[in-house]
Amino acid sequence: MADGTGGLARAVLREQLRERLLARILDGEFAPGERIVESHVMKEYGVSQAPVREALRDLEAMRFVESFPHRGVRVRLISERELAEMYPVRAALEEVAGRAAAPVVTDDVLALLEDEIEAMRAATRDDDVHAVLVHDARFHEIVFEAADNALLLEVWRSLHAEIRALVTYTRVRVGLADIVESHVPILQALRQRDPALAGKEMRHHIEHFGALAFTAREEDESPARPD
Amino acid sequence: MADGTGGLARAVLREQLRERLLARILDGEFAPGERIVESHVMKEYGVSQAPVREALRDLEAMRFVESFPHRGVRVRLISERELAEMYPVRAALEEVAGRAAAPVVTDDVLALLEDEIEAMRAATRDDDVHAVLVHDARFHEIVFEAADNALLLEVWRSLHAEIRALVTYTRVRVGLADIVESHVPILQALRQRDPALAGKEMRHHIEHFGALAFTAREEDESPARPD
DNA sequence: CCGTCCTCGATTATCGATAATCGAGGAAGC
DNA sequence: GCTTCCTCGATTATCGATAATCGAGGACGG
């Protein structure tokens, strides 16, 4: 539905199931690659098969699971190759977001971004990797929301599955602090309301970590990777 | 499902229905804004409600229809605003595709692109707007396929609904010939295997027509309604 | 007259049951 | 011993029927 359900209209089983299942996937209760069996979900939640199937199909559209006819659904296992493919796409989208957001960003939004950076710093002090990544993602999402382009936001959100998979693959080769502080130039560019600069900073931010992720990986045998 | 069903596994009602319905939407048999009633589709194809619902949900994920709980599905009516939002997103994606494709493009692919341009020229001679747009879209799709980035291709395809809506809104202010010939620099850049140039040409190509579409529209301020 | 409440047909959401398909494991043939 | 075929339990795909919801139109009170 494009939903986002900012509004009302709750209590459609399919939607509730979708949220529940998604939460369980994100919590890792359903591990990547693991099957999700319709009949099990039915019994667990005491509902019928139809809403379960539709919820799973929603998750499929969100790229969190994949399905094959007569063989059911499994949590998507995102390969390193797919992750590598994500970087240029994401970098391009983030640049667009930065450009679009810079001229229209409000002080409120800047404050929110500041808060997220603060939250990341706090999480870094606690060495809480998960929290850092959550606030990291939220920081970027705020910029996309500020860009005031519904399509752009939606496309970016469709990469959630991949973005989240970074957690799995990111052996921390980069200090958490580096990740956190690399957001500061973005915020500054937005403060200056400089579209070109904000776009550039967003792009560089993504490309930087993309490059790190893969130069760091070169060493340990990367499969199917022509130079 | 990621499907694309390059492979086998046919004959799942939901998929067949999805294809049929999509074809009818694209043919304009279901007009934008028109409702698609589950029970009608059921009877028409002699199937039950479940596969119809799932097919419609697939189409929703593809952004061709939209749905609201208890109020059914209607063919998405893409506003000019949404169309305007598409241009920066598409421009960014096309640049990525051009960059990625240039270094790895084969002579076969270049020949295919040449063919599409030829087909566009022929269609122009016949003044067949629809055919021009079809080959136009195909040209771009070939570049995305050549870029060898499944995610990029998938994201681009998710804009199909919007791209197609251009047909509706594009009162021909630009000569068909201009559209056609504006593809030539892209092909040349790819021939030279110059990533930066190919990316730049792709981007400019989109931005050019985006700008045209909206400077041309400023004047009449029509709120989403062709006459 | 005008706004509110209610009813009712149309439609969607969910259910429970049946049919079709898959894959693992065992039997039969070589 | 190995391959091929077949059976069977598990699971998905589809069906037909029921429950819940919506919105238009009419009855009602002011």
Question: Would you write up a description of this structure?
Answer:
Two copies of one chain form a homodimer. With 227 residues, chain A is mostly helical. Chain A folds into two domains: 63 residues, Winged helix-like DNA-binding domain superfamily/Winged helix DNA-binding domain (Arc Repressor Mutant, subunit A, Orthogonal Bundle), CATH 1.10.10; 139 residues, Four Helix Bundle (Hemerythrin (Met), subunit A) (Up-down Bundle). The first copy, chain A, is 66% helix and 4% strand. Chain A has eleven helices and three strands. Chain A has a three-stranded antiparallel sheet. In chain A, helix 4 packs antiparallel against helix 11 and helix 5 runs antiparallel to helix 6. Chain A is elongated. The N and C termini of chain A lie far apart (41 Å). The N terminus and C terminus of chain A are likely disordered. At the A-B interface, helix 3, strand 2, helix 4 and helix 7 of A face helix 3, strand 2, helix 4 and helix 7 of B. Chain A binds a DNA duplex (30 and 30 nucleotides) through helix 3.
At the fold tier of CATH, the topology name of the largest domain in chain A is: Four Helix Bundle (Hemerythrin (Met), subunit A)
Number of helices of chain A: 11
Largest interface: A-B, 36 and 37 residues
- Which H/E pattern describes the elements of chain A? HEHHEEHHHHHHHH
Q: Which parts of chain A are unreliable, with pLDDT below 50 for 5 consecutive residues or more?
A: 1-9, 220-227
Any idea what the CATH architecture of the largest domain in chain A is? Up-down Bundle
Morphology call of chain A: elongated
